[in-house]
Write a structure and sequence with these properties.
Elements: H1 7-27, E1 32-42, E2 46-47, E3 50-51, E4 53-56, E5 66-74, H2 83-90, E6 96-99, H3 100-103, H4 110-136, E7 144-147, H5 158-169, E8 183-186, E9 189-190, E10 196-197, H6 202-211, E11 216-220, H7 224-229, E12 236-240, H8 243-255
Parallel strand pairs: 5-8, 8-11, 11-12
Antiparallel strand pairs: 1-5, 1-6, 2-3, 4-7, 9-10
Organism: Streptomyces macrolidinus
Protein name: Lon proteolytic domain-containing protein
Pfam family, one: Lon_C
Length: about 260
């Protein structure tokens, strides 16, 4: 025998599964990482008491201005990210919600991730050195470059390392600095031939750069749209595709001549 439920009781009974589902979704860990602007470091200066770039076998210049590599900080692979964290990240301009696999493609083991990031950084530093010396027409048999940046992994500082080596050895080629005395920031991978590659997290890196005093940001051209998404007012985007295009753009900015590309 079935009894008839009143309308309020029926609505309440039907709502119970929905409430339970929402509660489960709110408490369940999700496969995301939440990222925010990270530290920046001037590759022309020191990091944690040690020079970032050390060169022997060739005379070096005293530089002015700064070339700041940029980073993001993401929740670790073992951190439980919940629905509330994701919603909060979506609603903030200084946060980004990313698939965990995109942030940590090498797995969930912290030691594996650290090894992977360290190896990527080493490869990036080697490529940066080769690209810079090739651009300057110098031999790695004569010039030794050591790059050191504590607590940072991955390949995204490649472009800035390369520009830093060039600025220390040659500057703009006419006695001036590549930076023109400015604080220039940027991001981008680089290979030994000087090609610049995309990296991800650019919208957060522009915020880190502006926070730390940059007025110019070098960005891989393929990431112009992402870079403009949350671009701080007063930060100038300069898209690049190669080492030569980056150097040419900086020299044009310094001299006030030529065309400086824009996103």
């Amino acid at each position: 025998m079935l009894s008839r439920l009143s309308r309020p009781k029926a609505v309440a009974l039907c709502a119970l599964p929905v409430v339970a589902l929402l509660a489960t979704a709110a408490l369940a860990p999700l496969p995301f990482s939440v990222a925010q602007p990270g530290m920046t470091a001037n590759v022309l200066g020191e990091n944690k008491g040690a020079p970032v770039i050390t060169i022997s076998g060739a005379p070096t210049r005293t530089t002015k201005g700064q070339l700041r590599m940029t980073t993001i900080v993401a929740t670790g692979p073992d951190v439980r990210v919940h629905l509330g964290d994701v919603i909060d990240g979506w609603n903030r301009t200084d946060r980004a919600v990313m698939p965990r696999d995109a942030v940590y493609p090498s797995g969930n083991n912290l030691q594996e991730i650290e090894r992977h990031n360290t190896e990527q950084m080493k490869q990036s530093q080697d490529a940066a050195t080769r690209a810079a010396l090739k651009y300057l027409k110098l031999s790695d048999k004569d010039v030794k470059v050591t790059l050191k940046l504590a607590d940072v992994g991955g390949p995204s500082a490649g472009l800035l390392f390369t520009l830093g080596i060039i600025d220390k050895l040659q500057g703009d080629g006419h006695g001036g600095d590549l930076t023109g005395g400015r604080t220039v920031a940027g991001t981008g991978t680089i290979d030994a031939s000087g090609r610049v590659g995309a990296v991800g997290g650019v919208a957060l890196k522009t915020q880190a750069a502006y926070r730390d005093g940059a007025s110019v940001f070098l960005v891989p051209r393929a990431e112009c749209t992402d870079a403009k998404a949350e671009l701080p007012k007063g930060l100038r985007l300069v898209p690049v595709t190669t080492l030569k295009s980056a150097v040419d753009a900086l020299v044009s900015l310094e001299k006030g001549t030529g065309t400086v590309p824009t996103c």
